[in-house]
Amino acid sequence: MDLLFTQLLNGLTAGAEYALVAAGLALLFGILQIVNFAHGEFYMLAAFILYVLLAVVGLPYYAAAPLTVLLMACAGVLFYAIVISRVISRPWQIQLISTLALSIVMINLAIVLSGPTPRYVESPLNNVILDLGSVRISAQRVLVLLGTIVSFAALYLGLKYTRTGKAMRAVAQNREAAAVVGIGVPVIGLVTTVVAASFAGLAGALIAPLYAVGPTMAVLVNIKAFAAVIVGGFGNVKGAIVAAFVIGLLEAASTTLISTEYTDAIVFGGMILILLFRPNGLFGKAVRVG
Amino acid sequence: MVIADDECTPAGGASAFRNLLEVQQVDVILGSGCSGATLGGMPALLEGAEVSAITYGSTNPKITSAGNPFMWRMNLNDATIAKSFSQYILDDGVKSVHILSVNNDFGRGAADVYQKSLPELDVEVKGSDFFTTGTADLRSMMSKIAQGKPDAILFFGEPPDCALLVRQKRELNIDVKLFSRGGCYTDEALHLMGDPKLGNGLTEAAYWARTPEQPMVEAFKATYGDYPAYNAALAYYAMLTVNEAVKAGGASREGINKGLAEVDAVLDIGPIKFDETRQAYPNLFLVRIDDGESKVLKTVTTH
Amino acid sequence: MDAISSRFMRDYGWLLILLVAAALVPVFSQSNYYISIGINALIIVCLAVSFDLVVGRVGALSFAQPVFYGFGMYVAALLAVNLEMGFWWQVIAAMAGGMLLALVVGIPSFRLNLHAFAIGTLGFATIAHLIATNWMEVTQGPMCVAGVPRATIPLGFMEIAPWKLPQQYYFILTIAAMVVVASVAINRRKLGLAFQAVRDDPVLAASNGFFPTSLRLTAFAVAAAFSAVAGVFAAQFQTVVCPDSFSTATTVTLLIVAFIGGRASLRGVLTASIIFTVLPQVLRIADEWRMVIFGLLLLVIVLSAPDGIEHLFQRVERWRKGRREGGKASGVSAQPFAADTIADITPLGAEERIDGGHLRISGLSKAFAGVKAVDDLSLEVRPGELVGLIGPNGSGKSTTLDCISGITKPDAGRVELDGIDITGMSSSALAKRGLVRTFQSTRVYETLTVRQNLAVALHGRQSIMAEWASYLSPQSESRSFRERADHLIETLNLKHVEHRKAGELSYGQRKLVQFAASVISPPRVLLLDEPLAGVNPTIINLFMRHIAANHGAGLTIILVEHNLGVVVQLCERLVVLEQGRKLADGNPHDVMGTPSVQEAYLGR
């Protein structure tokens, strides 16, 4: 029984991390129809910003973490100005290659500037271990879980009830029609990019202390986040989040019951199976063809 | 000195080797540190340049078994290390282990060797699991391993992976001994543990460690402000070996190759003498983390 | 003779020049380093050409291409190392195995839409990499298969032993040239047109009788065979095969090469292959900054020339042409058309009877999200009859046509053609049986010329045997096709645009092209979905005369149309739909006089 609870918790906390990274990816995909291959590198950038704020500037974690999110929002503005605004109405191939190029630049710039060896970032919650009887968990992980829930609630309410949120959804459904009724698509593009980058910032600020900060830290988690975005319904934010937790739990289950080596194969095999039966993902709307 | 990027892939190794041989016209290659890139680069050595390559970090047994007359290895091979390390594990009172390794040639090769060498000493291997390097969350794997209640975990992986192992082992409160290969004792790993004391009690069998007998260590720190990493240190000793070879055979490409076969020197890391497969047998370092610091328990002569 | 050779030079000349240039590389540089870069570039050429076959020509983004490459590498390595099999066995096993693997992966994946297909292949690639890493007994995992021997190639009359790099280079150059020529050949055969049709509009292609999935599978399998062969050569060249030999890096290179090169542009893809294998090597001078600069250059290229290398080629060509013609006015202005000058329009250019089909629909129902679009509709159309199907917007006319023509599956009911139950048959199969439709949304193959649109439509409508048997024949027009096409083009006033791409035509012209394609091979039943919507009176006149002529020849026609004047004038029978149900059925004047019909139309 202990193992069951432990693995359940392991799966949930891993899922929360995937969800945080997946959120920004799903937003850009769902609202602007852009697959951002550099999203994982934004997460990496956020982690480096956190490292600099903590280790070089010397801020306490509770100040550095929110500041990281803020700085990533600014990075989002830059990202929009330099790349997204130029490719937003281009074919998807161009979007793919340009974000891929950005990802190559960011990873290798990180290698040049900081070296390939990773760095440790300290959070005061890292060394606080909560003992819940049969299971144990570090307080930082609880913070990740809470941060995921709170930020997603905020995102959900924001998309549903604010004017900007409604405009974002309108752009997602039909960009031309939204433009016709007077919604400024460039403004919505900017807002979406900034929110997506801020989520990457949040992911970096919360998750990085659990592991280490390095140029290639995002590669593996980003693949899982990508799978979550697809399975969740090609940019359906709610779906992506649910799928991220499903992937986390599936991994824990497969590690325990089947094989550690083929865990990723089981995740991706599951993804293909889901697509075979629900080609638009778990939460995607069926499109009427013809 | 010229640097070439091998991308850690066979194709990358091949073009890096050829670039060094033909464009940069070097007389000897130190590397590669990646087995895949070394294996990919080795055919280039046979294309007439007569240049020798000395690897100091690739563990793949195929590198020396291929019979390439220009390929030399400074670092100990797994079989040699396992002989000493398995005995040490037994002597430490361990009856059963679970092997957890990184899923690359280093981890696979090492796991393979210990799965044979430990049972020969009546140490039970309860299981063997592999993870992709860079996997952030090892907790589900460790929870599963803990269920089997082994006396020890035998870990093969890079320093960052090891730091995560140590931190998450504490988080899950798994009480087993840790033995390792791959860099758990390094400054990098200790730094990434956050609190280096978390690693207390871990024992690693290392190619190289800082010992007072090596004046290079302090000299390096005085010049670059930091202690050398193990591959930097081994590269230094590889260079000294080349120097010995030049003395024996002359400063030409052929001379170095001939000279390497004749090297019989005692460096600060032990004797360097290549056998017929062009494998050298320097000392093995057994290192333990004690009170948050790596201390060399003993150096073991291997040949 | 001169004309032929100059045409050959125009079509293949640049390829020949490229080949000669490539063949001279080892002559100018004895350095193994440069030769090995050349070999890497040639391998990428093979992979990029096959990648472009799937992504560029049939329009399905596939992340699986490097897997087939890796598969070829492992097959060659394992056969050579474990079983000591010779060169030809390696090639045969890699090609056959690669194609088989492509079918196993492709058959389920192509059931998905193209988005999901891309992701499915990405998942497949991940799983394949894991298998290569973890199936220790066979692949030796990350320990790699090392010591792959460079094979001797028995040619019957002699043996080639390419053990040295320059020989390897020529060896791989031969293969790359063969792959490129195969790709050019496919493109210049009827198969190339069919691929392009499926990419441009799969729904239209299906309604022309093609099975889009089979064509995509064909491209996928051929590409897999090309990649697997490239893998065999790469394994012998590198002599070591590891899981990372076909990692994400290969995928990234292929994506860059295919998209920077330009969709379905061989010259673009070839140029990009060379640039993006040489560039990372040139950048070695930048040491640690190498990949940063590579990424930045890529970003600058894609942002400043987003249409790719092919676009640059076209600009150069236009510029050169402009200089040659010295500012002569180009472009074709629409010619005035005197409809009256064409006295009698016959449907096929000859006095010919069409054996019209007999359509019987009973109890047909279809609902979307609970809303009944068609509700228990029964309708019989006799051979040679011309029935007008009318009704207000949303009354279920198009859905009825969709159900009959196999675009959507009805929830209930039965459709019979000449007494045979055709309910639920695919639109491809129905087209082959002579049941043809046009679309309200006007579908044409936008990147094909008007004549090619007609040729493709004719090709698809043949029996499956004839369709597949003639895929490898050249695109030259048969005499019977030329007669039909000339007649239709002439009488539909498309002569002046017959060599223009359909995507460049006006709305009305596209409607005409669509119509011409539907009757290029005489159908038995023709379903016309609002052919007259939004076109000018001249074209309406043309359509009326053509419809009447086809009707006169005996074709069974259902005409869905809002222009009541035309319908009443043309049709001998009218069926009125309202909310998916039949409101009236009979002689036009009686039907139009029915109070309920007037109410439905005029809302009284």
Automatic annotation (TrEMBL), chain A:
Keyword Transmembrane annotated: yes
Membrane topology summary: Multi-pass membrane protein
Location(s) in or outside the cell: Cell membrane
UniProt-recorded Gene Ontology molecular function terms: transmembrane transporter activity
InterPro entries xrefs: ABC_transp_permease (IPR001851), BCAA_transport_permease (IPR052157)
Keyword terms: Amino-acid transport, Cell membrane, Membrane, Transmembrane, Transmembrane helix, Transport
Listed GO biological process terms: amino acid transport
GO cellular component: plasma membrane
One Pfam family it belongs to: BPD_transp_2
Membrane-crossing residue ranges in chain numbering: 12-35, 42-63, 69-89, 96-117, 137-159, 180-213, 225-250, 262-279
Domain of life: Bacteria
Sections of the chain in a coiled coil: none
Family to which the UniProt record says this protein belongs: Belongs to the binding-protein-dependent transport system permease family. LivHM subfamily.
Name under which the protein is recorded: Branched-chain amino acid ABC transporter permease
Organism, scientific name: Neoaquamicrobium microcysteis
TrEMBL record, chain C:
GO molecular function ontology, one term from the record: ATP binding
Biological processes, Gene Ontology terms: L-amino acid transport
Gene Ontology CC: plasma membrane
Residues of the ABC transporter domain: 359-604
Topological type in the membrane: Multi-pass membrane protein
Pfam families from the UniProt entry: ABC_tran (PF00005), BPD_transp_2 (PF02653)
Keywords: Amino-acid transport, ATP-binding, Cell membrane, Membrane, Nucleotide-binding, Transmembrane, Transmembrane helix, Transport
The keyword Cell membrane belongs to this UniProt entry's keyword annotation: yes
Residues that span the membrane, as ranges: 12-28, 34-55, 62-81, 87-107, 114-132, 168-186, 217-239, 245-262, 292-313
Localization (cell): Cell membrane
SUPFAM superfamilies (UniProt xref): P-loop containing nucleoside triphosphate hydrolases
Family that this chain belongs to: Belongs to the ABC transporter superfamily.
PANTHER family (UniProt xref): BRANCHED-CHAIN AMINO ACID TRANSPORT SYSTEM,ATP-BINDING PROTEIN, HIGH-AFFINITY BRANCHED-CHAIN AMINO ACID TRANSPORT ATP-BINDING PROTEIN LIVF
The protein, known as: Branched-chain amino acid ABC transporter ATP-binding protein/permease
Organism: Neoaquamicrobium microcysteis
Phylogenetic classification of the source organism: Bacteria, Pseudomonadati, Pseudomonadota, Alphaproteobacteria, Hyphomicrobiales
